[in-house]
Design goal:
EC 5.4.2.11; six-stranded mixed beta sheet; alpha/beta; about 210 residues
């Protein structure tokens, strides 16, 4: 049985380009971000990958990336489920701030702790642990059962919401996951075994 799960972080957003904390704010993709999403679709098409259903977040940069990927593989209009459970980590009071300005205000060490620790949230926001606690139940309830039934699934979402899934799939720990980066527009292609563990993984870099 084909148990295919593809994870794709959205292409570069306008706020990625401006070095701003984004979180649940909703900037669109840059021209580069659009091309990254299209290129991701082309790489999936080259492997002959097709999907039965897609999942994305409640934020437009992930939704646009999802749409562009589906266009490139010849599946525009594929049923897509949108849910804020897959949203980016909420950066709270940091949202919309330039990362350098945040360091000037709170100090390099404090901002690094908020960004790279597992369980220390920024003021008014979520830690990575909080994000994992939001994303994983949704994955277990809505996505994984479909994969195990043989449905081919695309999840287009965000760096931190996808890190929550990679943490489980790749067997990473709270100590190792904070340093793991997901590149914009680079699909991760997983095939799962019958016990839900990973049979193989491909990183479709340019």
């Amino acid at each position: 049985m084909n148990r295919l799960l593809v994870l794709a972080r959205h292409g570069q957003s306008d706020w990625n380009l401006k070095n701003l904390f984004t979180g649940w704010k909703d900037p669109g993709l840059t021209d580069l971000g659009v091309e990254e999403a299209r290129a991701a679709g082309r790489r999936l098409k080259a492997l002959g990958i097709q999907f039965d259903i897609a999942f994305t977040s409640d934020l437009s940069r992930a939704q646009r990336t999802c749409d562009l990927i589906l266009e490139e593989i010849g599946q525009p209009g594929l049923k897509t489920i949108k849910d804020q459970a897959l949203n980016e980590r909420d950066y709270g009071d940091l949202s919309g701030l330039n990362k350098d300005d945040a360091r000037a205000k709170w100090g390099e060490d404090q901002v690094h702790l908020w960004r790279r620790s597992y369980d220390v949230p920024p003021p008014g926001g979520e830690s990575l642990k909080d994000t994992v606690a939001r994303v994983l139940p949704y994955y277990m309830r809505e996505i994984l059962p479909r994969v195990m039934r043989g449905e081919r699934i695309l999840v287009a979402a965000h760096g931190n919401s996808l890190r929550a899934l990679v943490m489980v799939l790749d067997g990473l720990t709270p100590e190792t996951i904070p340093s793991m980066e997901l590149a914009t527009g680079v699909p991760l292609v997983y095939n799962l075994k019958a016990d839900t563990t990973v049979a193989d993984k491909k990183v479709l870099e340019a």
